[in-house]
Fold each of these.
Amino acid sequence: MSNKKILVTGASRGIGLEIAKGCLEKGWSVTGTAVSSSFPDSMNSNKNFKGVHVDLGQLVDVQATLKPEIENELPDVLINNAGVFRDADMMADDDEWLRVWDQTMNINLRSSSILTKWFINQHVKNGTEGIIINIASRAAYRGDTQEYAAYAASKAGMVAFTKSIARDFSRKNIFAYSVAPGFIETDMAKDAVDLLGKDYILKDSAFDEITQPDEVATLVVFLAEGKIRHASGQTFHINGGSYLL
Ligand code: NAP
């Protein structure tokens, strides 16, 4: 399909921006979201790109901006990419611990679930094919340090959610995939690089370089093409060989 419509969350920076660019290069129409950043001029000037600002941690905001986008414009592909990586260690007080868990679950998992629900219901109603791509993390498979336990749990939730969609909706032409990146050189990873140093990060890797976001985007764009329906429910790992399944 040369005129596919794509909705990608978190398209202002990092992996989401590369996914949006990759989809535009295919000639597809892209709606991208951000919470507060502006979109780059190269995106704003592209007639096939629409930028939307929405806080995925605020249900009312999501309902006002993205529910009509999904129900009226119905994208062919929904890419749940936006995410946060917030820390709270076991010594944090209970309120702080729960604040981080609630924020992480709301933004990373709960918002993806409601967008997916609207997307599936509309496709089933119309009898059309839809693809969901959930950007999870290697943390879903190997856990993370205790400070980022909420993050790992939110990503494991995404993987399980993807499998549930595949089991129940493949017969209705709704396909869902998880992508589990390892360490990717974006703003999200910058703090860890600054704190621990590149050598520490690369100790885990089978490469001498940190994975770049455009490689993740290449995989996502391939999945969005819809050529491997029977891989629905699977996770695609891209982690520089930091673990191999
Ligand atoms: P990033 O560079 O930090 O970009 C995050 C994107 O999400 C931005 O577009 C940001 O918008 C948006 N966002 C953040 N909070 C939001 C909220 N409350 N509501 C709406 N949008 C929000 O992140 P990234 O590294 O590209 O990560 C993208 C995805 O890949 C995430 O789900 C992440 O967990 C996953 N991942 C990343 C890595 C890695 O090493 N980088 C590894 C595994 C998985 P603003 O620009 O407006 O803030």
Note: Residues 5-238 form a domain with the Rossmann fold fold (CATH 3.40.50.720).
Amino acid sequence: MINNEKICFSGVQPSGNLTIGNYLGAIQNFSRYSEDYKCFYCVVDNHAITVRQVPAELRRRTYETLALYMACGLDPEKNTLYVQSHVPAHTDLAWILNCFTGFGELSRMTQFKDKSARHADNINAGLFTYPALMAADILLYQTDVVPVGIDQKQHLELARDIATRFNQLYPDTFTIPTPMLAKSGAKINSLADPTKKMSKSDENTNAVVYILDDRDTIIRKFKRAVTDSDTCVRFAEGKDGINNLMTIYSCFTGKTIEEIEREFEGQGYGTFKLAVGEACADALAPVQQRYNEIISDKAFLEAQMKKGADEASYYARKTLSKVKRKLGFVQI
Ligand code: AQP
């Protein structure tokens, strides 16, 4: 909390084209906080370079992610939308928090284990200390709530531990943040391997539905989604593929799992998959339309980046100077 304002913070990496996992697990929920919280939504480009990025693609995706924030309903007048590397306080605080984070704690992070297995040729220190930067992102704004998908819950717990440890040594420095998981959609799985999270960096593009996929592509991908040898549309253990599709359908239509089971009683998987594809395409159409209007106006996006970075810096500086003062750094 800053000046009696409750604070919400979250971010998305411009590390690939955004997926319906990013949308349902995170971005769609961001606007829920706009009325009651001061919201900071960041394009976390510093995090993205923990994995090698092609510079031109990183640049393009940074604009795209900001445009998608707005297309998904985040009004830049009500939310602070900005790019992480434009506010150097993030990396400044990250260094400090690195010195309050245990090697053992970082070694236990499942994302580090997964990503170092996937990028065995580039297991860099940034990938390892990613959670300390994420803690800095959040703690810098005295954040109360962080809307995220389940995969980020472990990092959030570490951020809470780091904040608590710091507060014990230097009382009343950080607000302890609370993760806010979407009621449904906090973990959307791959269409090709439904035991695995849907990821924007998955090499198999058929496993992933991107927010900007066109209608035919969306429907084709859902038609090919892996299911099981049963034929009944019901949510049950061992039916990962169908459970995932039912969750996606539920998120896009607002129907409960019971309502979906009743709706498709006696119908095969083919009919159901088509319905999921159509519901997803229908829901994303207005987002895509708004996105196309925004993305073409680069000057507007740059002006928003600048405005967002100025706003975020104002808040970030307050916490950073408090932290430095408490640590005993000489400030001039
Ligand atoms: N499959 C998912 N289901 C629900 N939520 C998800 N999120 C990501 N994937 C899913 C949530 O989206 C937000 C932004 O994620 P991120 O950009 O910080 O990176 P990530 O969590 O590592 O997501 P990706 O798509 O898997 O990226 P890559 O492939 O680059 O690692 C977060 O709130 C996340 O929980």
Note: DSSP finds 13 helices and five strands in the chain.
